[in-house]
Every structure is written in structure tokens, then in C-alpha cells.
Request: fold
Amino acid sequence: MDTAQGIREAITGALGQLGISAAAETITLEFPADMAHGDYATNVALVFAKQVGMAPRDMATMIVEKLGTIDGVARIDIAGPGFINFTLSSQALAISLNEALIQDAWGASDVCPDETVMVEYTDPNPFKAFHIGHLMSNTIGESIARLLQFSGAKVIRANYQGDLGVHVACAIWGIQKLGIHPESADEFGTAYAAGATAYKEDPVAKKEIDEINTKLYERSDPALNILYDTGRTTSLEAFERIYGILGTHFDHYFFESQTAPIGKNIVITHPDIFPESEGARVFKGEEHGLHTRVFINAKGIPTYEAKELGLEKLKKDLYPETKLLIIVTGNEVVDFFRVVKRALELTYPHIADEMVHVPHGMMKLPTGKMSSRTGDVITGESLLRELAAAAKVRVTESRAGDTEKLSQEVAVAAIKYQILKQDSSKDIVFDRERSLSLEGDSGPYLQYTYARTGAVVGKAHMQGIESRVDMNAEPTEVVRLIHRFPAVVEQAARDLKPHLITQYLLSLASAFNSWYAQVQIIDTSEHAPHKVAVTAAVNRTLKNGLWILGIPAPEKM
RNA sequence: GCCUCUGUAGCUCAAUGGAUAGAGCCGCGGACUUCUAAGCCGUUGAUGUAGGUUCGAUUCCUACCGGAGGCACCA
Reply:
């Protein structure tokens, strides 16, 4: 039934006849970048030629002779140094096309059927700015969550927020000194920057901030508690507004105030693993090829390290059914996670086994790295606002009903696409001008194509032309690309790489737009129903693909 | 100093060890009395340097040069 599987098995058989044993799974079958090379290509002849002592092309010829006919394959060619290229039959491609037409969940894979996975991402800190770095974590994390969900997993979305620690004390100190109202989250960033600078440069301020920190841990100062509680709520509400715009909602919120005592307890109850050193409790990473880190400082306060241990323990206590605990964060913290994971392996190995850290690159400004300590940040809200304003200029001229809503959807698409178009492990140089661009290789381009396909299909149906796949129609590039979608989704889910989806959608949209410019879809010919079917299949594929990326798909633009 | 990541076109990014290294932006040129012009077509232009492994290297290894991040009481 599955053509790719059929090809694999046929190749295994052919190799067997030549005295070479290879499992079907180990045979690589890839989509050639150039469609002139067919729908699938394999390099088995190149790989095994040496083993048999033959020239690769001769080897390929022999394999092809043994292959015989394969269900769904119209043509087999040998090309280049010895590639074997498979061109699918019109019928095989039409079957995919039809699936795209009738299946709501077209493209869904079963990489992780019914498994429960927790994805932790975004992780902003109350009392600090929600900046474009958090936007990046949120965008990548949400997309990974959806990728797994679309692959059959039950996903628990988690957000871990640092509501306790020196950074909070810095912000509180700043709020007090600057006389900021705890009800206005807008100024928390400024307060934090002031506090953080003072903490570093002014010994008196440092002492005051450390005292605030201790009091907050102990909750021993009622006036401070009120300020803290109000500010915390204000901060969290501000975050929630952004999540609403971004289309994320979390199933569980973890806080450092919860994980601190748990983590501290883990450290204290394992004195052999976390020995005392210079008044602090540390983990000697050198013994494991890593570096030493402090888990409880000399004042008895658990650090981020201990809290992280507590967090993972808490996750597993609350959700024992998980198979995977994915954590999406910036890559500045990779070494930290290596140490913590090792420490967890020694204390709770079954939890450590599930822990997967997915680091992503940093969002940098053309001027360099952002720093919330100096206040040199672009906040998520201001960026979204600017983008929406830029989008609105276009939107008002268009057919959209709710221009406010559409402007925002276009803004979200623009920023998310910029983040998801590249391998997430790399840094992104954030260019304001570029992200404001709504053309070309961009989120709005995909949205526009989606809206366009919807409009054409709608118009066709209105004129009484139904979508109907013609099994014998000559396959176009668009149809060949549609066939690839499920495999692309599967690959992206396995590798946790959303950008594979982005790249694919761009090529699909581009192929469609190109086709659209050449062909009249709605006409009076007998081919019209098939062309409408192709358009509808593109529509469905873009819809599902955009959903995975967490990019809204407006019906009209 | 040690560790990790990274270097592809003027810019921002692609390319499970494979075929002629792909897009978009910018620039220049073009088509259209047509279903959404946020669109389409054409065009210039690139693998940091030096070795090695391989039938084949942007990809793997070594060295060097450049960039980013991390390395004890921050997160």
C-alpha cells in the first residue's frame, strides 16, 4: 500500500538476489531535490558497489534488472554516479492527492502513538521583560509540541517561571527605588535593569538586594510580600495576553518557588553526591568530564541547579505517565543542563532518562546580544505591535472582514516564520526591517497562498465545479510535492526540527503559485475538477502545515 | 586557559556523505483585459584557510583564522 515501503522491499529483494543482505529500514530512500530525478532516489548501488567489487553504475544496472516491476512505480532510471531513481505512476500520486483531499488530519504520522510527552518552553521570568528571546522559545516549543501532537502523542505543555531568586530581588529593589506601581508590568523591565546594574556596581545595593532575596524566600516581610504578590500577578497576566496572541496555552505552570524546596531536599538528602565545599553544596562535575556547579549556596539558598532537579522530580511526580520530558531553552544553558542531567542520573535515573534538552540559538540584535540586565531588549509586545501596524497597511486594502484580527495574524506569521525557517540550533540575527517584510520567503506568503487556494476552491464550488481527482492526469510538480508531505512531517517529528516543515511549505506554496500563474484552474474543460482537487489538496496541506508551525491560517487576505 | 556551538551569494537562511550547492531579500529587466499582484517569469552572484579520510566532502577528522556562548555560590 505504502509506495515508499514497497520500493524499499523491492530493493531489499533485489539486493538479496545479488547476495547482499540489508534490512529494508537501512535502505535510504530520499526525495531528490531536483524533481527531474523522480519521486524517490536511492544510493544503494553506490553504497554496496565496493563490497561486491563492481562499478557503481554496473551495480545499479544489475539491481534494476532484478527489481522487476514495483506497484505504483512507473519508471526506474539510473543516473549520475549510480543513483537509482523511481518515478511514481500517475495513479500512485493520485492516491496521495485524494488522501490530502479527504483526510482532515492529512499528513499525520504515528511516530509516537499515544505516548505522553511533556514539552516545557517559553520560561519567562515574572518581574522581567518578555523579550524576543522568549518569543523564540515559545515559537519553537509550541511547534515541537504540535509536531508531536500531530504524530500521535498526548502533549502536556509546561511553562517554568522564575518567580524567586536574585533576579526577582533585583526587580523588587528597582520597583521600590523608582517608585513603580506593582500594577504596571510595562516598567518592570526598567526596574530590573536598575536593580541588576546596582547589584553589580554598588556594594550597598547588593547587600540590600540580597536581604530582599532572603526575605522573599522566607516570606518574612509582610510589606514586601504584598509588593511581590501584586507584581507577580501583574507580570503573569501580561504574559498570558501574549500567549493569547501567539496561540499558545499551557497545561501546567511550574514556579521556582515550588521547585526550590524540592530541589534543596534532594541535595541535602544526597550528601555523597552533593558534598560541601567552601560553605556551599556542590556537584563535582569534573569526575564526569563536566564542571563543578553550586547547587545550594553558602547562604543555604538553592540555586537554579537545585531548582532544576526539583522541577524534573515534580514533573514526574505530577505526571508519572510521561515517556519524555522535553525542555526547550536557549543554548547558553547547554553545559548547565549536562551537569544537572548527570546529577539527576545519580539521584533519579528513571527521570534523567526521559529528559531531553532541545537548545535553540539566541535571538541577537544586529548590534549584538540583548541584555535584560542593561534594559537593551526588544519586548515581544512591542515587536508584535509594530508588525501588526505594518501589516494593517496592507490589510485595510484587502478583503478581510476583521482587519484588526488579520493584522495580528499576519504579524504572528511574520515573526514565527522568521524563527522557524532556519535550523533552530542556530542564532538568529534579528532584523527589524526584514521581519516587517511581508513578501517572498515569509509567513504571510504562506498565509496568502492558503487564502488564495481557499478562494479559488470556494469559487469553483460556487460555480458547480466539484473537486475530483483524475487518476490518470499527468502529475505536476505540485502533485508530486503533496505526496511528500506525510514523510516530511514524520522526519520533522523524529528530529524535532520544525524548519523542515517550513522549508517544505515554502516549496509547495512556490510551486502552486507558479502553476497558478500558468494555468486557468476554473474553466469549462473536463480537467477542471481535477485542477480544483489539486488546489484543494494544497489548501489542506498548507492548513495542516501552518497548524504545526503554530501560524494562523486566515481564510481571506 | 579549558569546554561547546558556529563560519555557504552584498544581506538573511537551505542542502539524512551524493547528481548542476538551492531559496528569499536587494538590484536590474519583463508579462498580464484571466480564478486573490502579499503573486508570476527572467537575470548577476557563494562553501573562511590548509591538509586528511572517501568512488564522492558544504557535511566526517586534524590544524589554523574569524564569530557566539559557557566555565563556584546569577538564571
Summary: The first strand of chain A starts at residue 40 and ends at 42. The domain at 384-549 of chain A is CATH 1.10.730.10 (Isoleucyl-tRNA Synthetase; Domain 1). Residues 222-246 of chain A form the longest helix (25 residues).
